[in-house]
Design goal:
This protein has a single domain, classed as Rossmann fold. By secondary structure, the chain is an alpha/beta fold. The relative contact order is 0.22.
């Protein structure tokens, strides 16, 4: 494909800093240069999710994501088509539905927990970026996010982290660090990694413009 988009995959455990990184990258590049697709928007409805032995809905499995819809939308973006989908509201029934629109761009970033685990998606990636942080820091960040931003009870946050999040990280995310092209250490901050990746993206955009 002539002028094929450059596809970047970003993964890392919950609380490793992926979302914050993506928000800052978004501020640096306009949509016509960079399309960012988050796997969070592809969670299946709550009623379609598995439950654990205690009857708690388990969102931290690869099957919790509508993988086929994600791959379909990536293919459409690669082919130059616009993609629209409803924003996932994290099971907040009071949230007003919001439609998201994604435009084709020279660089497409796909971010999510299972970005490297899905074989078909992994094969599409030209660059794989892995976010690393110590487990204790990830727990603290997860608590702050889920308790403050999403108003989840602390007991629920800790239960899910121990029973769902951590086992899923060990099985579906951590093993792929060996195949990453770039590992961003985010124990304190990712400023240096951010600057390096921004410079890389600017170079790729310059190459695309010349082609």
């Amino acid at each position: 494909m002539q002028n094929k988009p450059y596809i970047i995959g970003i993964t890392g455990g919950s609380g490793s800093g992926k979302t914050t990184f993506i928000k800052q990258i978004r501020e640096q590049f306009p949509e016509k240069q960079l399309c960012i697709l988050s796997m969070d928007e592809y969670y299946r409805p709550r009623e379609e999710q598995d439950k654990d032995d205690e009857g708690i809905v388990h969102f931290d499995k690869p099957k919790s994501i509508d993988k086929q819809a994600l791959l379909r939308d990536i293919s459409q973006l690669m082919a130059g088509s616009i993609v629209s989908l409803p924003r996932y509201n994290f099971n907040n029934k009071d949230a007003d539905p919001v439609m998201l629109t994604f435009h084709p761009a020279p660089i497409i970033i796909v971010e999510g927990l299972f970005t490297f685990h899905y074989k078909k998606l992994r094969k599409l990636l030209d660059l794989k970026i892995y976010f690393h942080a110590k487990d204790n820091l990830k727990v603290i960040r997860r608590i702050k996010r889920d308790q403050v931003e999403r108003n989840y009870p602390i007991e629920d946050v800790l239960y899910r982290y121990e029973k769902h999040v951590l086992p899923a990280f060990e099985k579906y995310i951590k093993p792929y660090i060996e195949g990453a092209d770039i590992v961003v250490n985010n124990n304190k901050n990712f400023e240096k990694g951010f600057n390096v990746i921004c410079g890389f993206l600017k170079n790729k955009l310059a190459e695309h413009k010349q082609s």
